[in-house]
Write the structure tokens for this entry.
Amino acid sequence: MQASSSPPSPSPEPDARKAALRQEMLRLRAGISGPAHALHSRAAQERILTLDAWQAATEILCYCAVRSELDTRLLLEDAWARGVRLLLPRCVPTQPGVMDVACACDAADLRPGAFNIPEPDPARCPAVGACAPDVAVLPGVAFDRAGRRLGYGGGYYDRLLTAGQARPGLCIGLCFSVQLVDALPADPWDAPVHVIVTESEVVWISK
């Protein structure tokens, strides 16, 4: 379900600075070795698991990590084990740059979707429409200490969050420490986060 009014559609590459920074951050992330990737992924997820907001949440929006992204399996498994309603984004095939959200009850509800990212199977998991999860864990190519997020350039999460389809109580940016920078270029449609979690720290911007 889309809100009746929506923000201007983000440009895939609104700023040359973003494109250059995106390339550099992806290079740094891809350079994290297998053992370090697993170790840092677990440490960052464990930091999220200790947050009061995570433990108190009854509905969570998360994502399935792919390629060199920080792993999220521990978060997904924790939500399923505790009976928390777990929402996952899913690309809408007929609308480039647009995602809907569906509830996945366990790993069996997932199948490879757009970009080979595990997504809720449309045959088993209908879209939930507008939602207000207590917590949303968001991926990013980079974050800064003001809560700004740099995505992959398609505007998927910016549309999801600013169009009103998903209105989380707390937005958590999840990344490796090498992806956390002092400042990022920003555009009006960029959706900020309230807290950033890495393997080494939790950075609160606002609650």
Notes: The chain has a mean pLDDT of 91.
